[in-house]
Amino acid sequence: MSESARSIPGFCRDCLKEQTAPARRCLACGSPRLLNHSELYQLTLAHIDCDAFYASIEKRDNPELADKPVIIGGGKRGVVSTACYVARIRGVRSAMPMFKALEACPDAVVIKPNMEKYVSVGRQIRAMMLELTPLVQPLSIDEAFLDLSGTERLHNDPPARTLARFAKRVENEIGITVSVGLSYCKFLAKVASDLQKPRGFSVIGQTEAVDFLKGRPVTLIWGVGKAFAQTLERDGIRTIGQLQTMEEADLMRRYGTMGQRLYRLSRGLDERTVEVDGEAKSVSSETTFNDDLSRPEELVQHLRRLSEQVAFRLRKSALAGQTVVLKLKTADFKLRTRNRRLESPTCLADRIFRTGLHLLEKEADGTKYRLIGIGVSDLADPALADPPDLVDPQASRRAAAEEAINKLRDKFGKATVETGYTFGGRRRGQ
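Above: the chain sequence. Below: its structure as tokens.
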């Protein structure tokens, strides 16, 4: 082996020992999980993605599920939220209708999502990320970008080893696994994190970026979905390598601002920084029905329950929202959204529900719906929320009653107290 190959930096992802000579296994612990790359200790931008997040948490909490295919999703009319890798091998994919998922994997264990549990675990992992660097940009509950520039002295290690140590810590303390992508830009860091799932750690350096991208499909580029990919294919463009041979002006003439993105990302050019102000812009909850519903009283029952869930999440997150958004999906999958801005922010289920009810009245016209959701946007400080209502004197009484109910539920569980709108709903089936 050449001297240059011998000098490529690397370490073992299990014991973190430096590798001083080429080998297939760690010279210290024997692990095959070695990481080496010529730019390994120069790169600082990472994308961390939890592996099959919801399913991994359920398997962690129930060891009997360890080797079984697990699908997280709704009932027979719902869709797959996520699936473990055993189920994915059988052909199950996120957003797949549940009946198709069960056709592909009939022996799967289907578990209804427990969002409160998943959010709690997500927050634990987010807190661990913030111990590495303040530059953390969440993309969702289970993934984020991190910029570890300037952290080497803080952690006494280059970012690559700090990230490997983080992955081990999540696995040991939280009980699930993550995959890490390390690069010089956000686009390729995210691409890298998908390369070796689960428990992956992939590196894409600047010197190899163009060659790495050359043979990849255009759908690898952010924003190139199914419809746009078909447009590109009609123009004879299937691979990123083809984009690399085209001029920026030509691409912009054909595809507008998207053409500029195609030009830059196809060459690994991405100057976006990690933004730390990526907090949630809304809080919502929705449900897919087992059977289509059209009767107002049935829709109202779900609307009330979902409003309570949204209010609970607002309280736990110390947030309030000023715009209420109603979401409905018809039996033929057409989406309807309606919203109303309140005079002041709210974190009360009563105000969310009553506003949503007003919006629902116009839509409950006999149309059959397969899904209903309610949420709030324009998030604000809860200190500004729910001032006394001079127009509706009963609002203060309802707010006081809601506060009393919340205290009982916090102490004895959510099923302790139910309103007339939701009473018996779980027993009738949702």
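The longest helix spans residues 296-317.
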